[in-house]
Design brief:
Structural class: alpha+beta
Order of helices and strands: EEEHH
Mean pLDDT: 77
Number of helices: 2
Shape: globular
Strand content: 15-25%
């Protein structure tokens, strides 16, 4: 069940919504109730699950993020 990020084109409010398949036509702004919303690009929308697992379990001896 994916959570998508949206931004209202009317009031500029940004919000998240849990969207089931086929329900993406019924998205509206929780602030002004406008249906003029756009889906935002987010890191999770183009990262594969294997990418996260590789980064999270990487055991390198270099300094930096762990």
């Amino acid at each position: 069940m994916p959570i998508f990020e949206y931004k209202c084109n009317q009031c500029k409010k940004e919000f998240e919504k849990l969207v089931f398949s086929g329900e993406d036509k019924d998205i509206f702004c929780p602030e002004c109730k406008s249906k003029d919303v756009g889906k935002k690009m987010s890191a999770s929308s183009f990262m594969g699950s294997s990418s996260l697992g590789t980064c999270a379990t990487s055991s390198s001896s270099s300094t930096g993020f762990s």
